[in-house]
Amino acid sequence: MAAIDLNSDLGESYGVWRLGDDTAMLRLVTSANVACGFHAGDPSTLRATCAAAAAEGARIGAQVAYPDLVGFGRRHVAMDPAELRDAVLYQLGALDAFAQVVGTGVAYVKPHGALYHACVGDAASAAAVVDAAHEYDPSMAVLGAPRSALLAAAERRGLEPVPEAFADRAYLPDGRLVPRPEPDSVLTDPADVAARAVRIATDHEVVAVDGTVVALHVRSLCVHGDTPGAVALAGAIRAALEVAGVGVHPFTG
Length: 253
What we know:
The protein is α/β, with parallel strands linked by helices. The protein has helices at residues 22-25, 43-56, 81-101, 113-121, 123-136, 149-157, 190-203, 230-243, and strands at 3-10, 31-35, 59-64, 106-111, 141-144, 160-166, 205-207, 213-215, 220-222, 247-248.
């Protein structure tokens, strides 16, 4: 039987600013990419998100980012690789503290926003993220884009590389995501997103914006917690996968 993980970016509220419905999302996803305080998330939000993930049996991943609260981590920050490594290690330790006190731990790392895109082709940034993960826990998995410098670096370091696809984002013909500022880069129709998720999980392909069919061999599907109607999207994806006979399970043990 085909199987896939369903992940989402969570824990992104900050102070009085509330973003997304983490409680509802955690009833649907199997892996939680939890913000670590650099692009979003405050200490109490991190604790609450880890506790909710543990209660629902979702695996916790560290969604590490550039230090960019104002830009939500979606702006590139020029950092020396050693400085970036230490920033990632800092975030891993912070999140894992909250995961440990609720009886679990951080199982994987996934870059967020501009750092995610930098790690697709920038070998130095990718190595910095992977080096931090390896220093912290050599058994940690790394979640990222297929054929990226990030997953190549993880494999070289002996960490588990896990390719993912985005159910709620549009794709370019070369397999990259359509940049967010462009029209229709984010998909919000539950039926369309669910059908796309099933096609990725069963046929290992996605249709790009120009109609090109792009091969995507992945082990996890992401639906963003801040996408409009995220809970409805995740619910539609989960239901469609189950109807299609696709098991939904965490990619980590």
